[in-house]
Design a protein that fits this description.
Helix content: over 70%
Structural class: mainly alpha
Shape: flat
Distance between the termini: 69 Å
Radius of gyration: 22 Å
Number of helices: 4
Number of domains: 1
Length: about 130
């Protein structure tokens, strides 16, 4: 009786391990896909991805509707710009270590492009148009 319970526990543990493996692989694929899409968007358009902008644009629109002062609006825009710069640094870190490039030359070229785009973003007053 104890042997049967032990066998069932081992089988359940094995199934749980296999399920956890496939779940983690799926999560990695989703993460790589999203990050790769954002990287491609940044390189193609040299602008901030919409997913990064939407929360900030909504917040600023609410502030405008509620009649917030220009000083608060400027502060919110600067905060959004800092977030965009942080996202760009995250993209650069992703490009440095992600297994999505065929050659190291392609990786270096992408990193150079990202640095150039980041310097362009720093020169802009606000990095995205909705606000």
């Amino acid at each position: 009786m104890l042997g049967l319970e032990l066998l069932i526990a081992i089988l359940l543990l094995g199934l749980l391990s296999v399920g956890a493996y496939f779940y983690s692989q799926r999560c990695i694929q989703l993460f790589l896909g999203r990050e790769t899409d954002e990287l491609s968007y940044i390189l193609d358009t040299e602008s901030v991805p919409a997913r990064w902008c939407l929360p900030h644009a909504r917040r600023i629109a609410r502030m405008q509707q509620r009649g917030a002062g220009e000083r608060r609006m400027e502060r919110a825009r600067r905060r959004a710009d800092r977030r965009f710069q942080k996202g760009m640094r995250r993209m650069q870190a992703f490009a440095k270590g992600a297994p999505i490039f065929e050659t190291e030359g392609a990786r270096k070229g992408t990193l150079d492009d990202l640095k150039r785009i980041q310097s362009q973003w720093k020169e802009r007053i606000f990095q995205h148009e909705p606000y």
